[in-house]
Amino acid sequence: MEQTSWNIPVLALRGLTVFPNMNMTFDVERKISIAALERAMEENQLIFLVSQREISVVHPEEKDLYQIGTLSSIKQILRISATSCRVIVEGVCRAQMKRLWQIEPYLQANVEEIPQSDETQAFLRSPRTEALLRQTMSLFDEYATLSGNVPEELVTRVMDSHECGDLADYITQNIVMRHGDKQEILEELNPFQRLRLLNTMLAKECNVMGFEKEMEEKVRDQLSSNHREQIIRTQIRVLQHELGEDGIGGDDEIGTYRNKILALGLPEEAEKLLLKEVNKLSRQPFGSAEGAVCRNYLDVCLEMPWNVSTEERLDIPTTRKLLERDHFGLEKVKERILEAIAVKKLNPTGKGQILCLVGPPGVGKTSIAMSIAKATNRKLGRISLGGVRDEADIRGHRKTYIGSMPGRIIEAINRSGSMNPLLLLDEIDKLGSDHRGDPASALLEVLDGEQNSSFRDHYLEIPVDLSQVFFITTANTTATIPRPLLDRMDVIQLSSYTDEEKLQIAKRHLLPKQMVAHGIAKTALRVQENAMRNAITGYTRESGVRRLERELSRICRKSAVKLVGGDVKRITITDKNLQDFLGPVPYTKQKTDHFDQVGVVNGLAWTQVGGELLEVEVNVMDGTGKLELTGNLGTVMKESVQAAMSCLRSRAKELGLASDFHKTKDIHVHFPEGAVPKDGPSAGIAITTAILSAATGRGVRGDVAMTGEVTLRGRVLNIGGLKEKTMAAKRNGIHTVIIPHGNVPDLEEIDQTVREALTFVPAQTVDDVFAVALAPQVEDVVVPEKPVVTFEAVDAVFGQ
Questions:
Q1: pLDDT category, 643, cuts 50, 70, 90?
Q2: In the chain, % of residues over pLDDT 70
Q3: In what order do the strands lie in the sheet with 354-358?
Q4: Closest by alpha carbon to 136, among 195, 192, 176?
Q5: Is 98 a catalytic residue?
Q6: Are 629 and 667 in contact, with CB atoms under 8 Å apart?
Q7: Bond from prior residue into 105 cis (ω within 30 degrees of 0)
């Protein structure tokens, strides 16, 4: 090998360094490297191996390669796959790349041999050289001892070496070292300096390995009393001790938690539990799942407003003013709130109130609760219970579960930032239950003033005092609320609004609100009172005012189009142009004054959205005594028809009926709007009157409506929902309403405008009903007078 320069292929190494006179095996995958090997095998099997400066470079150029590498001879190539091969090379000599003149399809460069300085015998035997060799062997022996994975034959070969350059190359080739350090040794041409440089690196490596060994021993000592899963945390502690950073990080966090807990001044049980959780956290490895659970639990507990309470406003005149300003009507609710404030002022340590507002949709249950919070200066927390089926929504999950969290009660208190908020439990009648538990049962403790002073959420596990919380629940009906839960609440019934109340609400609240929402100035739109009344009676049929608000929104939208698109500066809505804004009238007022019909009676029914006029139709035909019932009737209403039939049969002679009419006639009882489910006993007298009318041919007065339950003996029993039913009668043009005599005291609850518009006739038996409801026979000259209720008589009943 006399030639000193070559034009040969170049193989760029990533993270590897090859030394002269050393064999190395490595894998090749890059296309340019495989092409370089194939080219070298076609010529003289010589190839220039040089390391890359950056391992991440995929397509190296001259600037990416070191200048000094190793001229090597290819000994063997083994194909591993279609895209990779394994090669065995032997280093020949150090060489320097003069110019990389080809990079595709493989690297090729002009390479020149670097002559190696010869070590004379005098230099090899000099004391200085001998000392360097001994030092190298000692350091290598220490390295092998600390490493523990150096082969014995490698140690033996090192001990037998006497040449500085070869010894440096051999050790560097066979130990773990950064490729940059290996390249530095490869580029050192002086053998003596090369070995000195290696000694420096060996000494540094032995020092580092010694520290690692020392830390491992310390870790092993500290693990004698701890579980092996704490290895990572112990290593961190040892590292912090070595760096002089004791107390930084975790200990500060633990101390912060302890100080916050002690500063809260919690009861002994709660404080002890939280400190126990802090101690548990201090023993957890950093970043462990259990540590995250502990931190989350402590954060939730410390975010609770344990010692924070708002100062409640106990000024009755101010509260009354606020409630009157925000709401029209709802006198019962306002009176009950003022009572609660008066009691709280006399007894500041008393328990919180638990009210249940029950009424049809749209009458202002939720909004009145919000106004109560504002009037009493309490923070408001609203919890929607509609569709809740999981008990954990109320009481929370155990903190050991993944994704666990407190229940809605604790979450609402936390969100309100006060321990005495007003919590609004909306739609409590819509609670469900399934295999995950019964949330209504979970509320039994929450809504019990005798128990909720130590409410325990499953997540917190700490007693929380709910006795100062003002609970208000809302519902459309009490029928679906479990009895034990209903018994814990003070129920306040909110009835339907009268047309006069709707008018005032629309004028004072709804129309101004919609004008602001649609950007209409106060002077740009005016709705006359007659138009507002027509909108209420002709376009809405509801207990509340939601539909009315939507109609007013519709008026505002159409007005906005006119104001923006034309020269109109002011719009006035009258009863004449109302249909231009709202379209055809969907609900026309029924005129029943002069329509006396046979077998048709106006009954009165209560629904969840208010009162309704319920017609009862009966046809009597020749037949075999069949009784047919239609109109989607419930069990109770079907039984009312059977009771009415039995009542009439027992009085057939007195009423002028054939004794065998139930055998010779087919009777069909029908309730119109057959798709709507109907049930309840309060249509009993209406059914009885309709059957009697159809059987005798006597007409029923069209301006009379009635409600009441009938017995087999003909007595008329009390009914409920009288206020809503009378409103429905007034709304449909009825003049006279027959009610059970036992419901006379309930007339005090009826609105003044309704009382003035209707005549109430109390009935004790069906005879009283027939005398008023049935039209006079042709031969009758005088209709017998029946008692009519006057409000003087009502006052006399109450002793006023």
A1: very high
A2: 90
A3: 380-384, 422-426, 470-475, 354-358, 490-493
A4: 195
A5: no
A6: no
A7: yes
Instruction: Produce one character per residue of 70-86: b if its CB has 16 or more CB atoms within 10 Å, e if not.
Output: bbbbbeebeeeeeeebe
CATH topology of domain 316-493: Rossmann fold (3.40.50)
Q: Is 403 left (phi over 0), alpha (psi -120 to 50) or beta?
A: left
Q: SS3 for 28?
A: strand
Outline where DSSP puts E strands in 427-578: 455-456, 463-464, 470-475, 490-493, 525-527, 571-573
Asked if the domains 316-493 and 499-582 are classified in one and the same CATH topology, the answer is no
Which of 332, 325, 488, 353 lies closest to 421 in space, CA to CA?
Answer: 353
- Enumerate the H helices of 223-330 as residue ranges: 231-243, 250-264, 268-282, 289-303, 316-326
**Residue listed under structure tokens 């940059």:** 180
**Of the listed 379, 665, 678, 725, which one is catalytic?**
725
459-499 pLDDT tens trace? 888 888 888 888 888 888 888 888 888 888 888 888 777 77
Is residue 782 packed enough to be buried (19+ CB in 10 Å), middle (13-18) or exposed (0-12)?
exposed
Query: Which range in 50-59, 241-250, 747-756 is most confidently predicted, on average pLDDT?
Result: 50-59
| 771-790 confidence digits (pLDDT tens) | 888 887 644 434 445 455 55
**Paired tokens of 12:** 């760029």
Start-to-end Cα distance in the chain: 135
Residues 235/176, Cβ–Cβ less than 8 Å: no
Strands 759-763 and 736-740, by their bridges, are parallel
- Per the CB < 8 A criterion, the answer to whether 787 and 771 are in contact is no
> Which of the residues 682, 693, 723, 730 is marked catalytic?
682
Place of tokens 């006029």: 613
What pLDDT band is residue 656 in, cutting at 50, 70 and 90? confident
The hierarchical CATH code for the domain 597-798 is 3.30.230.10
pTM beyond 0.90:
no
Say yes or no to pLDDT of 247 above 70.
no
Note the pLDDT of residue 799.
45
The CATH number of 499-582 is 1.10.8.60
Establish whether 725 is a catalytic residue. Answer: yes
Please return the burial class of 315, using the count of CB atoms within 10 Å of its CB with bins 0-12, 13-18 and 19+: middle
- In the prediction, which pLDDT does 226 show? 56
Whether CATH 1.20.58.1480 fits 121-217? yes
Distance CA 365, CA 427 (A): 10
What is the rounded CA–CA span in Å between residue 624 and residue 572?
64
Whole-angstrom CA distances from 309 to 94, 270, 306 are 83, 19, 9
| 3.40.190.10, 2.30.130.40, 2.130.10.120, 3.90.550.10: CATH of 5-113 | 2.30.130.40
| 23 C-beta neighbours (distance < 10 Å), count | 13
Whose tokens are 């041409």? That residue is 189
Average predicted confidence (pLDDT) for the chain: 82
**What single string gives the DSSP state of each residue in 352-363?**
PPEEEEE--TTS
Query: Domain extents for the chain?
Result: 5-113, 121-217, 250-303, 316-493, 499-582, 597-798
